[in-house]
Amino acid sequence: MSFCPLVIAAPFINFIAYVFIAQRIGVLSTLIPFGSWVLMILLQNCVANASKSNKMKEAKINDERLKKVNDLVLGCRTIKCYGWEVLYEEQAREIRIRHSKYVKVQLSLQTLGSSFFQQFGLIVFLLVLLPEWFQGKKLKTSDILSILSLIYFIFF
Q: Whole-model pTM above 0.70?
């Protein structure tokens, strides 16, 4: 519920920020943050879907591992009697190896979300300024700070 006001205000804030960026450095340079913002939203959606799918697969394998361990604990006498300890241990180890692969993927997706997407505004800031620098334009410090703060608001 705390994000509802931000969701309502975000399109207006973005529009105003794009207008100010267009006034400062031009309409074509405004397309870079807008396109990057759309791309970031799409990438975040893809990462969230991949994370959800991976989490479901991880949970399934984790349940399988817990079932094996539970069978081992409950049927300890039978397993000991027939010498099946090694079989259960190998099965549990194999399941744990499969499980750890999903955990590594999940941690990678979380890292992507917590590092790359949070710094996306700075990347876009550089993408906006690079064409200006390559064209030999000299921007005033006030323009650079204004663009930086506006891009921060867009990607907040």
A: no
